[in-house]
Design a protein that fits this description.
Helix content: 40-55%
Number of domains: 2
CATH architecture of the largest domain: Sandwich
Number of strands: 12
CATH topology of the largest domain: Jelly Rolls
Strand content: 15-25%
Order of helices and strands: EEEEEEEEEEEHHEHHHHHH
CATH class of the largest domain: Mainly Beta
CATH superfamily of the largest domain: Regulatory protein AraC
Length: 270
Amino acid sequence: MLANFEHLAFDKGLHIYVNKFLNLHKNPHWHFETELIVCTCGKAKVILEGRVYELTPDYCLFCYGESIHSIESDEGTTIYIAQFEKNPDHNSKDYRFKTPYIKDRYHIKDRIVKIYDEYQNKGLFYVELINSITTELMVDVIRNEEMIQKDSEHYFAVVRYKRLLSEIDNHYDTLSFHDAASFMNMSDAYFSRAFKTMSGMTFSQYLNVIRISHAIDLLESDPDMSYNELLAETGFNTIRNFNRVFKGITGYSPRQIPSGYVLHVRSLKT
């Protein structure tokens, strides 16, 4: 499964987990934890709930739990992603930052890097130190950034969209564009615009990525699987179309895909 829900297990007692990435590319996904995305070098485009944000070392981005987001980094970009065990402003659960796009006036970047380094080294009392830095950081941000009440109408639209992603992943071999639009209770034209806004790609592109991801899994488990079986399992109508889409997304033909290949989508061809 290439998109959808992601789950993270925290070390016992830790309220935050930080990971470091170079040239990160992540398709639309969501998780229960609130996420803080920090860029220390380079530039990245983040699509969060249908809005596009340019991430540079001067800004960071808060992605609240259960929000749909994707990340596309420029070459040479270093990203740190911090995930919180629970919403950092849990005492104000009906409120959120007016804008998730926060100018780094609070040494956020430096603090997140310090948390990452502390976790890697795991010196004495590293859990207590990491939690202390996390609390101090969030107090500074919450006290100084404007908060607004959550938009329940938008929340329910996002919930419906997440259910659609699950529907696509479960029925990628048979689901059509019209089926997806009906699932969202939208006209075809409105759904086309809404899906592109939320995911950063067209429905056809997204469906092809999911289908090819599953085709890669099938070939990994059975490299000699016949084309007829692959077409039946992935929903493509012709071998020619399957080969074209497969190579357009992976850069390889189905029979040349390396063992253990992991799909990272940088550009999609339709």
